[in-house]
Write a structure and sequence with these properties.
Strand content: under 5%
Oligomer: single chain
Number of strands: 0
Shape: globular
Structural class: mainly alpha
Largest sheet: none
Number of domains: 1
Distance between the termini: 21 Å
Order of helices and strands: HHHHH
Number of helices: 5
């Protein structure tokens, strides 16, 4: 069991470290838009947070398909993009809830709340996208043959 956990961590870490770097880049876009749209344009922080989050999601998608994940589970790039944003939409809902909680309930400054909520949502987005969209496709027939050989 420990060996299996260690193997999973080792297999995930290269992707996770790249995802952290990509997330930092996307967070700069997200955070920058949040602050700009709220402080300069005058939008409500929740609307600014949604706009920033989706802009950051576009950055993350581009980096995911070009740099982070070597495997793609779906052949359809359109379906992949839709599912990527569906996962992100769950993330934006979670982000909005946490942002509201930390800003309105605990009284934190909205940009500090964004740091906390964004850090939490990162893990949801990474693991959901890795397991739904960027896992290695394995040929069913090849798996069947391998299983027969192992018996």
């Amino acid at each position: 069991m420990i060996k299996t956990i260690t193997e999973k961590i080792t297999a995930t870490f290269p992707f996770l470290s790249k995802a952290v770097i990509a997330s930092l880049i996307a967070t700069c876009v997200d955070f920058g838009l949040l602050a700009f749209l709220t402080e300069i344009i005058g939008l409500h922080y929740q609307l600014s947070a949604c706009i920033g989050f989706y802009a950051g999601t576009n950055v993350t998608y581009f980096l995911s398909i070009t740099w982070i994940f070597p495997h793609r589970s779906l052949k359809s790039k359109i379906l992949e993009y839709i599912l990527f944003f569906a996962v992100g939409t769950v993330g934006v809902g979670l982000n909005a809830l946490l942002l509201w909680f930390f800003t309105e309930v605990t009284g934190l400054y909205y940009l500090l709340s964004k740091i906390i909520s964004g850090s939490t949502v990162f893990f949801w987005n990474f693991y959901a996208r890795k397991h739904i969209l960027f896992r290695e496709r394995k040929d069913i027939a090849a798996r069947g043959i391998k299983e027969i050989k192992e018996k």
